From TrEMBL:
It comes from the Bacteria. It holds the Pfam family TrmK. GO terms for molecular function: tRNA (adenine(22)-N1)-methyltransferase activity. The keyword Methyltransferase applies. PANTHER family: TRNA (ADENINE(22)-N(1))-METHYLTRANSFERASE. It comes from Mariniplasma anaerobium. One of its GO terms (biological process) is methylation. This is SAM-dependent methyltransferase. Keywords: Methyltransferase, Transferase.
Length: 205
């Protein structure tokens, strides 16, 4: 049983892929859940540091997993079908994706600045093919991407071109509106104008 909804949901998205690369694998919990449920056949667990990989090795020692110390994709030599980059900031995910093979599918879960990541993806030649959101103490936005072309409006950058059509996103948007409304009275004029614009976007007006 997965420890949380995020791990469980990410593992479910691996279905249909034989070999999964998990960058920044940490304890290897997503891969472990995927193996336990028979979603995948093999995996590559990668992390920048030795300590997290040691934890992943303990979790995944009964499964066909290659363990690699790597800064993103830089030391990944083996082929894979699906890449997971989850639980990091948007700027770090951007840096990692600059070296990503373009012929693969990727699952991204940034902890912040989703609009920055979406803008980067469009410029970098990626297409968001689906988006999901789950709530487990916090809201987690998950994007599935592959090579492609997309043109995003300003609203798309914030709402998500796929996410905006999903009813489960509305509580997340409502939370964002409340956050901006709380900040608004203390902001200067320029900041208030920017906040008003964001509030309208999240209200989907």
């Amino acid at each position: 049983m997965a420890r949380n909804k995020r791990i469980k949901f990410l593992s479910e998205l691996t279905q249909g892929y034989d070999c999964v690369l998990d960058i920044g694998t940490d304890h290897g919990l997503v891969l472990l859940e995927a193996f336990k449920n028979g979603y995948i056949k093999s995996a590559i667990a990668s992390d920048l540091r030795e300590e997290p990989l040691k934890s992943a090795k303990k979790s995944l020692n009964h499964y066909p997993v290659e363990f690699v110390i790597s800064d993103g994709f830089k030391n990944i030599q083996s082929d894979f079908d699906l890449g997971i980059i989850a639980g990091m900031g948007a700027y770090l995910i951007k840096d990692i994706l600059k070296y990503a093979p373009m012929d693969k599918t990727y699952i991204l879960q940034a902890n912040d600045n989703h609009e920055i990541l979406r803008e980067f993806l469009a410029k970098q030649g990626f297409e968001i093919v689906d988006e999901h959101i789950i709530h487990d103490k916090f809201y987690y936005v998950i994007m599935i991407i592959k090579k492609g072309h997309m043109k995003l409006s300003e609203a798309d950058l914030y709402l998500g071109p796929k996410l905006k059509y999903k009813k489960e996103a509305k509580p997340f948007y409502d939370q964002k509106i409340k956050q901006f409304q709380k900040i608004y009275p203390k902001a200067d004029d320029a900041r208030q104008q920017a906040l008003s614009k964001l509030i309208k976007i999240y209200q989907m007006e």
